[in-house]
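Hi team,

As requested, here is the filled-out complex form for the nicotinamide-adenine-dinucleotide run. I kept the field names the same as last time so the parser does not choke. Let me know if anything looks off before we queue the next batch.

— J.
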Amino acid sequence: MTAADMTGADRIVLIIGGGSGIGETTGHLMRARGWRVAIADRDSAAATRVASVLGGYGLAMDIAVEAEVERGAVAIEEKFGPVYGMVVAAAMFQDVLPPDKLPMAVWDRTLQVNLTGTYLANRAFGTRMARRGAGSIVNIASIAALGSMPVHAYGTSKAAVVSLTRNLAGEWGRAGVRVNAVSPGSTLVPRVEERLKSGRYAADPGTFTALGRMVRPNEVAEAIEFLASDRASAITGINLVVDAGWHVASTWAQHGGVRPAPKRD
Ligand SMILES: NC(=O)c1ccc[n+]([C@@H]2O[C@H](COP(=O)([O-])OP(=O)(O)OC[C@H]3O[C@@H](n4cnc5c(N)ncnc54)[C@H](O)[C@@H]3O)[C@@H](O)[C@H]2O)c1
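And here is what came back:
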């Protein structure tokens, strides 16, 4: 298969962690834009459910386990076709904890899933894309990669994902493979809605953004689909922040916070 063969509307995208949240929303958006969608998730029931709604291919995969990622790569490409696009949205989250209360097992597992798992997926699928001469990878990082937060394992893992993205963009650019990251701010996926309802946030995350609200999952999906598509054909190695202005608003605290909206006429 040549690169030219894969430039049709029926390109295959694999979404790892596509069984819920941002990954699931991205699957729906990309299907609507003509992509054929494969869903991999540690939660095999969720992968099967989303894949069947999208008329795609679903499989169970724990991104942190090298043999599962390699087996998954062989299975998807044999049974569904060559993967052109890949979105890595699988992640492990952690509670807010000071270092002396953060169990090393949580530190290790967070790094294993978020960093090593992202690397394993990039290695397995990016290498295959590079051999074919075409592909586009979008790794999901986080605003936790950009600012200081008391989520030491999660934030460190996401900062490393941004670095990995840049390194692999250099590695595979001449082979026709682009590698980018998207860093969402607090995004209203069902998991976050539950946390909001159960009072697990110290304050509404939307109050800390320039736009005064949280991010919607489809807004992150739009950025992911853009980077995966040929509309971003000269863009590689970047980290596109989709945070409703969390980053810019964070330094306004010493000036009393961002300005409220003016009174409308
Ligand atoms: N929602 C937010 O506020 C937010 C903010 C910043 C970054 N992010 C990032 O966006 C991505 C998606 O997050 P989400 O909020 O949609 O979460 P989510 O929990 O809704 O979805 C994550 C999916 O990944 C799967 N998963 C977890 N561990 C896995 C593993 N080891 N192997 C394979 N699949 C695994 C889960 O089963 C789940 O379906 C993550 O990388 C997350 O760090 C989310």
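Two things worth flagging: The chain has one domain: 9-245. Residues 16-17, 19-23, 41-43, 46, 61-64, 89-92, 113, 117, 140, 142, 184, 186-187, 189, 191-192 surround nicotinamide-adenine-dinucleotide (CB under 6 Å).

Thanks,
J.
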